[in-house]
Amino acid sequence: MFSKNRIISTFATFVPIYFFPWIFYSYLAADFFESQMLNDVSRGEDMLLLPLTLGCLIMAYIFSSIYEGWDKDSYSIPSGIQFGVLIGLFFGAGVGLVMYGTELRITAIGHLIDGIFWVITYAITGIVASIVYKR
User: Fold this and answer.
1) Is the pTM of this model over 0.85?
2) DSSP letter at 37?
3) Which of 15, 56, 64, 134 could tie 75 with a disulfide, CB 3.0–4.6 Å?
4) Residue 36 lies in a domain
């Protein structure tokens, strides 16, 4: 349950899961998402960092745990990308479409860009996990 590789992978995959959204939404695409916002429900500067950090750590642990069983034979980079893309599609497309259908938060284009971002983020996270498990 807490193997050395899984712990290392958890902390390694935590980095993109935690920092990529922060960089993307706060700096790279902030103006775009501001223009796509229908109802701003974000905490902005009043973010609660402890729950955010713990949530990302749990996501990284679960991502690493599932990936560990995904490709026990090779842990190749293409396998990591494939796994990450599937997880990204689950969150970015699946959950994104559910949110679009049930919330009046951002436009359809905003949801599309958000989904693409998550697919790319989790593909990179899959690469990180594959490198950790390969070594």
Assistant:
1) yes
2) B
3) 134
4) no
Per-residue confidence in pLDDT tens, the chain, 135 aa: 778 989 999 999 999 999 999 999 999 999 999 999 888 888 778 889 999 999 999 999 999 999 998 877 789 999 999 999 999 999 999 999 999 999 889 999 999 999 999 999 999 999 999 999 988
Any domain includes 40: no
Q: Which two tokens stand for residue 88?
A: 């990204």
Q: Is 10 among the domain residues?
A: yes
Kindly report the CA angle at 102 between 25 and 60, in degrees rounded to 5? 45
Q: Containing H/E element for 50?
A: helix 49-70
CB 85 within 8 A of CB 72: no
User: Domain range spanning residue 65?
Assistant: 4-27+47-134
Answer yes or no: is 39 within a domain.
no
| Structural domains counted in the chain | 1
